[in-house]
Amino acid sequence: MQKHQNALKTIKVASGQIQSVAKMIEEDRYCMDISMQIQATISLLKKAQATIIGDHLNTCVVESIEQNDANLKVEEINTLIKAILK
């Protein structure tokens, strides 16, 4: 399976929801309905981000540990921490 495939599927669903939100706005739909769709899209994007970070843990961080390179381990963990804190 290709790396990040699950995240890509989620992103594609979110992309469809964004299109739907744009159409709702163009149709002057009820504000709270639009807001709920935006929130659903945000949730999908967060899910995709969590998947990407999980993939990073299971590949890049594991590789740095397997290579027994202390500097690389620290660098990968710092990259992970920065991503989580954003």
Structure description:
The chain has 86 residues and is mainly α. It has one domain (5-85): Methane Monooxygenase Hydroxylase, Chain G, domain 1 (Up-down Bundle), CATH 1.20.58. The protein has three helices and no strands. The longest helix has 36 residues, at 31-66. It is elongated.
Number of strands: 0
* Biggest sheet overview: none
Mean pLDDT: 89
- Estimated radius of gyration: 18 Å
Give me the secondary-structure category: mainly alpha
Give me the number of helical elements: 3
Distance between the termini: 28 Å
Low-pLDDT stretches are none
The CATH superfamily is known as Metal-sensitive repressor, helix protomer
**What is the level 1 CATH name?**
Mainly Alpha
Number of domains: 1
Shape assignment: elongated
Give the topology string: H per helix, E per strand. HHH
Main location: cytoplasm
Protein name: Copper-sensing transcriptional repressor CsoR
Subunit structure: Homodimer.
GO molecular function, one term: metal ion binding
Task: Describe, in short, the structure shown.
This protein has 86 residues and is mostly helical.
Descriptive tags:
single chain; 86 residues; mainly alpha; Methane Monooxygenase Hydroxylase, Chain G, domain 1; 3 helices
